Amino acid sequence: MIKLIAMDLDGTLMAPDHITVTEKTKAALEKAHDMGIKTVIATGRTLSVINDVLKQVPFVDYVIYSNGAVVYDRCKGKNIYTSCMPAKVAERVVDILESYPVYYELYANGVSNTQESKAGFFKNKDLPPEFLEFYMKSLVNHDNLSEFAKHNEIEKINMFYFDGEFYDEIKEKLFEIEDIAKTSPVSGDIEMTYKGVNKGVALENMCKELCFTPEEVMSFGDADNDIEMLQFAGYGIAMGNASDDCKKVAKYETLSNGEDGIAAAIEKFIFNASKPKLLVSACLLGENCKYNGGNNYTEEVANLKDKFDLIPICPECFGGLPIPRVPNEIINGRAISKNGEDFTAEYEDGAEKTLYIANECNCGYAVLKERSPSCGFGKIYDGSFTGTLVDGNGITADLLDQNDICIFGESQINKLLDLFDF
Ligand code: SF4
């Protein structure tokens, strides 16, 4: 069962304008959230640049920002995980960038910091002008970024859209620094965090806190800084517009961000994924509820959990009979023990309770223990306690059958699977 959805922003949650979350995607996420599923934005942006996004999806529970350097819990209003660059590492990166005509930003304290004198180096041919205008307004200007790096905890350093002749030279120098993790989600960009920091590690730490397994996580992404997050999640889903490397590591692929890919995948894997319900004799699943205190564990029945929501029932226990108990068989429609005592009332009580559960769960199918005086269907023991079989039903199986519940014995699992076309 999916308990958490993590999604990148640009190219994933956001429409191609980088500003809007479409109504369809918003509605799917909100419905999933109402079902108790936690929602997480995982972005390379800083926290301050996503306030407008959060206004559109106010139900989002957590934000992983600065490429995984920080996890912010919106309910608690505080960071619950941080992994910033040590000052010496940040200063070394800044020294390299300062010696070239490039535009870069230092992400710290949830905002993006820059130096106005470098604005002339900022080039972008791809981003929509409205988004760029909004983005530029969110920046905090400083006189000297080298000084800023010395006195602040740096979450991420971003060199933007550089297509000058020094690109390879800069890249080579930056890549010599072993203590930084580097990624280039778009051409000409180099994003740097402290080594070991990425969205996948941040997500993993969050899930440990929440006691969620990777199988319970769905993640969406499109760019190379989403790769670790896609690898971590049991449902790692690449957008239709994702990079080839993302598609290679993702387990599934959905439509593009322009086609509401997140909504399509949520529809498929969450809203349409509820399994059919199946009543099952508890002893077949290994519960020690049999008359002698043992069970009738059957692997093929237990494996049905992958395809059905199993609802274990033990009518004899529901009827108040103890474990262990004297065995019963059916004689003239009555449950008679080997000692000659009549337990029909307890058997009927257990049958009524089982039918009630079936109705409450809207369950139309059952796998019941063959030959039992409660659960047997079609053939049961004849009442002589000699192992002789006769045509007939156990008391519970009979009541379920009268109420149109389709019954299979443990030797008929293939028939059941055929019926559901599994
Ligand atoms: Fe198994 Fe049914 Fe007997 Fe309970 S009543 S022990 S479920 S066969």
List keywords for this structure.
alpha/beta; 422 residues; single chain; binds iron/sulfur cluster; eight-stranded mixed sheet
User: Unreliable segments (pLDDT under 50, ≥5 consecutive)?
Assistant: none
Instruction: Give the class from helix and strand content and strand pairing.
Output: alpha/beta
**Rounded radius of gyration (Å):** 31 Å
Average pLDDT number: 92
Summarize the structure.
With 422 residues, this protein is of the alpha/beta class.
Structure, explained:
There is one protein chain. The chain is of the alpha/beta class and 422 residues long. The protein has helices spanning 9-13, 23-34, 51-56, 87-98, 129-137, 145-151, 167-175, 199-210, 227-232, 244-249, 261-271, 299-302, 315-318, 344-360, 395-402, 413-419, and strands at 4-7, 38-42, 62-65, 70-73, 78-82, 104-108, 111-114, 140-141, 156-159, 180-183, 190-194, 217-221, 235-238, 252-253, 277-281, 309-313, 328-331, 334-337, 365-368, 377-381, 389-393, 406-409. Helix content is 32%, strand content 22%. The strands form 5 sheets. Strands 5-4-3-2-1-12-13-14 form an 8-stranded mixed sheet. A 6-stranded mixed sheet has the order 8-7-6-9-11-10, with helices on one face. Helix 14 crosses helix 15. The longest helix is centred in the last third of the chain and has 17 residues, at 344-360. The model has no long low-confidence stretch (mean pLDDT 92). Bound molecules: iron/sulfur cluster. Iron/sulfur cluster binds at residues 281-283, 289-290, 314-316, 369, 372, 374-375.
